[in-house]
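Exercise: predict the fold of this chain.
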Amino acid sequence: MLIGCEKMSQKLYRSILLIVAFCLTLVICFHFFVKIYIPNNYKIFVGEEKSIGYNVPLQAEIKGDIKGVLQINSEPVPQDRIAVNLNKSFTVRSEETGKFNVQIKLLGLLPIKKVQVEVINPNNYIPVGEMVGVTVSTDGILVLGTGNLIDPDGKKVSPSKDILYSGDYIKKINNKKIATKEELIEQINASKGKEVLIELERKDEMIDVKIKPSKTSVADEYKLGVWVRDDTQGIGTLTYVNLEKNNFGALGHGITDVDTQQLMELSGGTLVTSLITNITKGQDGTPGEIAGVIIESEENTIALVNKNDKNGIFGSLTKQGKEEYTRNEVISLGFKYDIQIGKALIRSNVSGEIKDYEILIEKVFLNDEANKGMIIKVVDTELLNLTNGIIQGMSGSPIIQGDKLIGAVTHVFVQDSTKGYGTFIENMILEEY
């Protein structure tokens, strides 16, 4: 009898362990789901009806000053706290700017994540369309590749081979922060050929490596045998400014390194006025381009760059930049669901003065979150005569439809310069915050 009871107890114990293990597994799975698919911060525009739903047994408890301001499924929220089932789709809408907090709970009981939602005013934006000089510095020294050196004995050596790789960012040498190529050279020469400790970032991971610089045939010169870059320049288009928030968005796509093809990590940069000196028309198979002079001076600095993202570059206006656009017209934003197939405008100063040119929006990809959300075609005779369509340097040119800023030009079709891609303006706006 005792043995039978022991067996029953063991079965019960195993059953309880299985249930506990299952529950823990479920919690862990939902934790990772929430971490990956639900952002820490959520942005919506005033007047925008946002549809949300994840088809999972999660509950969102919304708290804040939302009574009579926030609408759930087109119904005003009656108090400052409401619970919503994430297993079913629902809509959120607010007619006022503000912030509120959302607590995500598993089965309505176990808190697993907090999300902050911000409602943004879409009516403070000025489409610009001006080509500007862009100068940016990397956050650390970008490694382009490694190569051979000739040592004093005439032998080929490669100190950094299989240690440093294209795309690495050198942050420190012997615990000293490195920001420029000149500082890198100084530290390597100071080593006198002794092994140096290099702190670098590789694919978002910080690692330490050791390299022994090689002496060259030049007196007192030591090198790592590595190609590097610490800054870059170019010409692009300023898409919009927001004078209320004193910020800007430009390009419609991020700045990538020409050699590594990676999105560059920036420590900062500037937008300055530029002067167009030559236009090369686009031809089938060969993109056209704009050549110009970047006028670098304090009085010509329009803005400071502090973010480089797949959707563009962003930052703050200088005093000169704010004064420059004070008289420009503010227009509303148009969301991707507002966009219609058909006529629209792009704004550019490619001719030397800012003008609107007619285009056709041929396709809209509503589910596309990248910077190729629509296909556009230039039909304006003046612009076609000037450039043959879209050319390099026009990235960031604002797209306007029905007196609303709806997007920006991002890419040209290499085989047809009259066509290109555009990004939705909300992709850029939401990267500001």
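Check your answer against the key: The domain at 328-429 is CATH 2.40.10.10 (Thrombin, subunit H).
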